[in-house]
Amino acid sequence: MPNNKRKNRGKKNKEDTMTPPIEKDTPIQDYEDDEIEEMQEADLKKLRRTLRSSQKQILELQKSLMDKIENLSHENEILRRNQNEMKQLVQQETGIVTRNHNEMKNSIDQMTNTLESLKNRMGEAEERILDLEDREQERIQSNQRKEEEIRNLKNIVRNLQDTINKKPNIRVLGVPEGMEREKGLECLFSEILAENFPGLEKDRDILVQEAHRTPNKHDQKRSSPRHVVIKLTTVKHKEKILKCAREKRQITLRGSPIRLTADFSSETLQARREWRDIAQVLREKNCQPRILYPAKLSFVNEGEIKTFHSKQKLKKYVTTPPALQKMLKDVLHTETQKHGHQYERR
Known about the structure:
Layout: H1 2-18, H2 27-165, E1 169-173, H3 180-183, H4 185-196, H5 198-201, E2 208-214, E3 227-232, H6 235-248, E4 251-253, E5 256-262, H7 266-273, H8 276-284, E6 290-292, E7 296-301, E8 304-308, H9 311-318, H10 322-345
Antiparallel strand pairs: 1-3, 1-5, 2-3, 4-5, 6-7, 7-8
Helix pairs in contact: 8-10
Pfam families: Tnp_22_dsRBD, Transposase_22
Coiled coil: 37-166
Keywords: Coiled coil
């Protein structure tokens, strides 16, 4: 402070020397100069403190800025390294994706070629299948024709047997075993005629040529008696007796019911038996069924007479009239199951 005062005084002296002489200061003027000097020193002190504080803040701000610059440089370095690593990783991934793309493309090309090959093979297989189906259809049709021919031949043979070998024969069903031991089968037949057809019994032209049981040996397990076959001399007499039997309907021997029918081959008899269940159902419905020679079914449906040679044709016909279909549905289904079981046993 004294030094400052000296400096100020020196300045003042210098100014005094440089300025022209003026009048001598008064005491009041001297007091004002001292006060001004003291005020200037106070402002200088305050200014110095302000400068020191500003200098300190500037230093702190500079330090803070340097720290921030250093941090930014460090972060920039980290970002640069991460960028380089990311760039390398992207390049690696790009290479992997490119390789995978090429592999995928090669795989797709291979799959396309394989599919084309499979399509070609499937086309060839379909052509072979169609060819085999055509051959199979031809074989089925050929087998059907052969089966039809075989059935026709069997029918022809059966008809020949029925018309030539057994045409004058009458088959008697229901005669108990052992009854012929008393008088013989010929006398039993005469007794049947006398009991049921008195007018025919007096006809001397009706002669029995031969009589026997069939089959020849009696099976003890068989519940029903064996049939009696009567061979007459003429077909005319056979037809006459059967006509009377149809008209009388109920035939008896010593009060027990029996049946008179034409003598057919075993195949024809089996074919006629197969119509029995169906004829029974039709009879219950008042359809007037009849089993015609040799093994045909005839009945009346809606005022028309229908005749069928086989059950297959009857099944086809039954599918059209609803009433008849409902009537014969169960019995035809049962017959189909029976034939299926017989085929399995064979």
